[in-house]
Amino acid sequence: MPPANTKIRRIGLLHPGEMGASVGAAARQAGAKVSWASSGRSGESRRRAAQAGLEDSGSLEELSASSELILSVCPPDAATALAESVAATGYTGIYVDANAVSTGTARTVAAIIENAGARFVDGGIIGPPAHNPGSTRLYLSGAEAAAVVDAFQGSALQAIAMDTRPGAASALKMCYAAWTKGSAALLTGVRALALAEGVEEALLEEWAISQQGLDARSTAAARNNAFKAWRFAGEMREIAATFEASELPGGFHRAAADIYERLSAYKDCDPAPELPELMETILGIRA
């Protein structure tokens, strides 16, 4: 545990995907030594880690032993299992779960971490990968949130402490993504429905009159998200669970998860396919 008022200098990152690597680079920009664990990771992860200037600790056990703070940035479906893996190493520092998870999942992760003797901070990232100042925010809630904010001072990532309630940062992330990614799934589904019913041309003509710009928005919603859809499906399920925990209907976002699931075969596809192919995939016309 670092002494009071001492800036965190040793950070472990799990795992350097597109977003995670940018967060690690931001921490390095703020003056920290940032490590990751390469064991079992892909060549693409190794490339991103090297590009971000991360040091390789090799194993999760070594990473835990050398880190004052561990930051988890992974697909939401993996957040709980990753926390369990870290807890099993005997880690006792600060653990930040910065994943797009429901408030319930955030509290489950908190219990895993705290029962193992470490300190939990809930996090939620809003914005694109943190390459440009002012573009990306890391919201934090928990007793150690201020220490995490300080670790990113002077970097491209703006870290913001909210309050000490467990799950507050995750709740904000769920509310934000419920609209941005949820509405993108709805627009994508509407285009597929219009195609299936043979009224796509008429719909686009009506949009041009009464909903100008929706044609381009719906195309962008499908093409810009196709390569990330495999991740968004899990996020939609977490959002649905957050709605239901507050006794609100979660069915809309479960349907959004289904739309994204149908595009999951395009994982990391660059460039994105054209819209007709994506629509055929959603409708099951294209295998």
- Tally of distinct domains: 2
Main β-sheet description: 8 strands, mixed
Strand element count: 8
Poorly predicted sequence stretches spanning 5 or more consecutive residues: none
Portion in beta strands: 5-15%
CATH architecture of the largest domain: 3-Layer(aba) Sandwich
Spatial separation of the terminal alpha carbons: 53 Å
In which order are the strands of the major sheet placed? 3-2-1-4-5-6-7-8
Question: What do the pLDDT scores average to?
Answer: 95
Order of helices and strands: EHEHEHEHEHEEHEHHHHHH
Number of helices: 12
CATH topology grouping of the largest domain:
Rossmann fold
Describe the overall structure.
α10 runs antiparallel to α11. The protein has two domains: 10-166, NAD(P)-binding Rossmann-like Domain (Rossmann fold); 172-283, N-(1-d-carboxylethyl)-l-norvaline Dehydrogenase, domain 2, CATH 1.10.1040.10. 46% of the residues are buried. The chain is 51% helix and 13% strand. It is an alpha/beta fold and 287 residues long. The chain has an eight-stranded mixed beta sheet, sandwiched between helices.
